[in-house]
TrEMBL record:
Subcellular location: Cell inner membrane
Membrane topology: Multi-pass membrane protein
Record organism: Massilia polaris
Name of the featured protein: Multidrug-efflux transporter
Main location: membrane
Length: 465
């Protein structure tokens, strides 16, 4: 324990350097992973507006399940970080093996849910041809879900023992594979069948299995895994261990679901406004997701830094690491807001050659610029709380912010029901839903910041007693 008079001095510069060294390979990896979705949307955008709409709708459903799996598997980051900080290296292989069983189960459930979700396409006013293409896209891409669940288990393990290089290299190779197969199958190059957006689904699903295989191969070779190498023997599922990880990870998955489903539900609701608005909305959302990978990578690094500090019993360093990480994320939020606002026309043109879609997209990108600061703040504070093994409170806050405020407000502004006295004179369409997102993200940022301040202060006071 550290008393108030003997607590060591912590250097912000040292912590920034440590978090950056941990986070930048994950950032490259996250950008490459999201770049697959960017490539899907961008390449189909140059086929036709209908094909772009089908991929956009399919992606909106698939991505919700994907990030929910990602969140549910994040308990691996927290558990392994605490074991690493406490020097309990002999326990890590068992945790990883059970995490892989959990990842397989979560991935299989996700595959089923993703396919069931396509039943919505017949009830949201989509053109039947677009709905059929979107459903086929989802059916094919869902085949990669079990591999993704297992990959995220290994992802949490490797990043929490400070070995982040493989997630970067493997993701870059996955992106290059995705782009190449897209080029072959979307446009029918080199004599391959011209599949349009369905080619993107084939490329992404195949890429997920190859990334899992590459991660296992890397772990067998690299020296960083020798002490905690998990593949020394076969181990059947241990339900109490898996249940413990699910209790920690399920609230994170629901937290991710709350935000992603709000964005996804808005995509489905915007679909009623026609191909132009849904395409513009998806482009703006897609680019926002790409930018979001920077504070998200800082957040994943914060889980490791905070978890390792708490594993060592140093609550003061955990608090310090939390606020340094939040500061880095907020600084990036300011920069990204300025970039999006200044270069919104260039961003729109990079995605589509349709003038109507470009014009609508430019307006929506302004809203994306507005919520960069609050989005960066909420992901950083939520990640720090996960480092403390606190996952239910962020879940409750996210559900309140997105489903209690963002969606209802977006619906009122976007559709302007006549019975609501404060509705705008005319429906705002997609713009109304984006205003709701700005409000929801701001509420989440404020509440999560307060929660982190209170919790981290209490842990320091407890350690001083």
């Amino acid at each position: 324990m550290h008393s108030t008079t003997t607590r060591p001095h912590y250097s912000a510069r040292t912590e920034i350097d440590a978090l950056w060294r941990l986070s930048w390979p994950m950032l490259i990896g996250q950008l490459a992973t999201v770049g697959m979705g960017v490539a899907d949307v961008a390449m189909t955008g140059h086929v036709s507006a209908d094909e772009l709409a089908a991929v956009s709708i399919g992606t909106s459903v698939w991505s919700i399940i994907l990030v929910t799996v990602m969140g549910t598997m994040m308990s691996m980051n927290t558990v392994v970080a605490h074991e690493t900080g406490g020097g309990q290296f002999d326990r890590i292989p068992h945790v990883v093996r059970q995490g892989l069983w959990k990842g397989l189960g979560v991935g299989l459930i996700a595959m089923v849910l993703t396919n069931v979700a396509t039943l919505l396409f017949d009830h949201i006013g989509l053109d039947p041809a677009v709905a059929g293409r979107a459903a086929l896209f989802v059916h094919i891409i869902s085949l990669g879900m079990p591999a993704f669940g297992c990959y995220r288990a290994l992802y949490g393990y490797t990043t929490s023992i400070n070995a982040t290089k493989p997630v970067m290299v493997i993701a870059i190779l996955g992106l290059l594979f995705n782009i190449f197969i897209n080029w072959l199958l979307v446009f029918g190059n080199w004599g391959m069948p011209k599949l349009g957006g369905i080619g993107c689904a084939v490329a992404t699903a195949t890429g997920m299995w190859l990334m899992l295989a590459a991660m296992i191969a890397w772990m067998r070779i690299a020296p960083a895994y020798r002490i905690t190498f998990p593949f020394t023997h076969w181990e059947w599922p241990h339900l109490p261990e898996i249940a413990s990880m699910l209790r920690l990870g399920a609230p994170i998955g629901i937290t991710y679901f709350a935000e992603a489903s709000a964005f996804g539900a808005i995509s489905l609701l915007v679909a009623r406004f026609g191909v132009v608005q849904v395409s513009a909305h998806q482009i703006a959302l897609n680019f926002s997701a790409l930018v979001f990978m920077v504070p998200l990578s800082f957040g994943i690094g914060m889980v490791t830094r905070v978890g390792q500090a708490l594993g060592e019993g140093d609550a003061a360093r955990a608090r310090f690491a939390s606020w340094v990480g939040v500061g880095m994320s907020v600084a990036f939020g300011v920069l990204s807001a300025a970039f999006i606002a200044l270069f919104r026309w260039e961003i729109a043109r990079a995605y589509t050659s349709d003038p109507a879609v470009q014009s609508m997209c430019v307006d929506l990108l302004l809203f994306a610029a507005f919520f960069q600061l609050s989005d960066a703040t909420q992901v950083a504070t939520a990640s720090a709380l996960r480092g403390y093994r606190v996952t239910r409170q962020p879940m409750q806050i996210q559900l309140l912010a997105f489903w209690g405020f963002s969606l209802p407000l977006g619906y009122l502004l976007g559709r302007a029901p006549s019975w609501f006295a404060w509705a705008p004179a005319a429906p705002m369409g997609a713009a109304g839903y984006w205003i709701g997102l700005v409000v929801g993200l701001t509420i989440a940022a404020v509440l999560l910041t307060w929660s982190l301040h209170y919790l981290s202060r209490e842990r320091v006071l407890q350690s001083d007693r």
